[in-house]
Amino acid sequence: MASSRILELSSIIATNTERIDGFLTSHGFPYPTFEIDAPLQAIVHFDIASSVPRSGRATFGQISSSCGLTESDTRQLLRHAMTNYIFQEPEKGYVSHTASSVALVDVPMMGRYVEMVSSELWPTATTALHLTTKIQAFNVANHTNRPFYEEIARFPDRASRFAVAMDLINASESMKPIHVVENYDWAGLKENAVVIDIGGSHGQISIALATKFPHLRCIVQDIKGVIAEGKDMLPEHLNGRVMFMEHDFFTEQPVKNADIYFFRWVFHNWSDKYCIKILRSLIPALKKGASVVINEFCIADPGMIPLHKEKELRSYDLGMKSLFNSKERESEDWENLLKIADRRFLFKGARVPAGSSLAIIEACWDGDGQ
Ligand SMILES: C[S@@+](CC[C@H](N)C(=O)[O-])C[C@H]1O[C@@H](n2cnc3c(N)ncnc32)[C@H](O)[C@@H]1O
């Protein structure tokens, strides 16, 4: 009967609520709330976040004169945001922060992330009909023929904002560098082993690796502007152990005989044809036994993981389609990709460490070396 299913669901909710309650209490964690001190993060950016005092409140008129919108527009905008718990109106006519809105003030990266999502990703989602043509949604939305990275590299602020968004994503629990740092045998690599972090952005993984494993030397490769920022941001004590190098991964890999060629979240931006080109560009540099380590999503079969996780992966999958005409891949896709690039890439498997969103996919080079 329908009602017994509802009772069953409410009992599941009660049981799981008790588990969450027990977990929070036993770890001394605060309870989730939208109050200002709650550890929640904002999902939407409003320029006016800094016009509202961090504690206390402001009228719509005060906010409007500091942010430059009309009072009426300010009220419309904020009252809509409030339905998503972004700002609140504790008393009619007065606005104060919630945990979500104050994060825009307290976590500067958050504003940059939201700007990136709303200006780079959202416009492409509304042009999904172009899935049926050879034209990418990103190109339609941006009135350009250039691919994503080439286009944003023309606007230093967009390239920089994208890299900051990557930094913020890497700060989320299931994306933290620690998952790849702790779930691969970096410790077993020889003294002064060289890791090439290709498309490594600001070098977050290399920084985490070099910090935990002093015997490693890491070289981060990326496009020009990103590399310049990475160099500036590198903690001084890692100078000489984490290096930055401008390199286009579609061209021959300049660092020969490294131990590990590492790619994190790079291939999902490219369709198979381009991934194969990236992999083949490595070949002249590879010594026998070199490893290619890929840290990416590895989509499970439908229904095999909790729905909320599958939803996240399928959303990324469609996002990759509209931005790059690419996709997220399954274990078999990874194996095939490596095999098609060159049969000497021996696929060693794909596994998702507990707590990590990304899988570790590994191949070993079985060529003679050149
Ligand atoms: C999705 S981001 C991943 C960044 C980083 N590996 C991480 O996990 O945070 C992809 C990276 O590839 C870089 N990239 C794009 N095209 C490139 C190219 N042709 N050569 C080198 N790097 C490139 C981008 O600048 C960006 O940093």
UniProtKB/TrEMBL annotation:
GO molecular function: O-methyltransferase activity
Protein name, per record: O-methyltransferase C-terminal domain-containing protein
Stored InterPro entries: COMT-like, COMT_C, SAM-dependent_MTases_sf, WH-like_DNA-bd_sf
Entry keywords, A to Z: Methyltransferase, S-adenosyl-L-methionine, Transferase
O-methyltransferase C-terminal domain ranges (all copies): 163-341
Pfam families (UniProt xref): Methyltransf_2
GO terms for biological process, alphabetical: methylation
Residues annotated as the enzyme's active site: 268
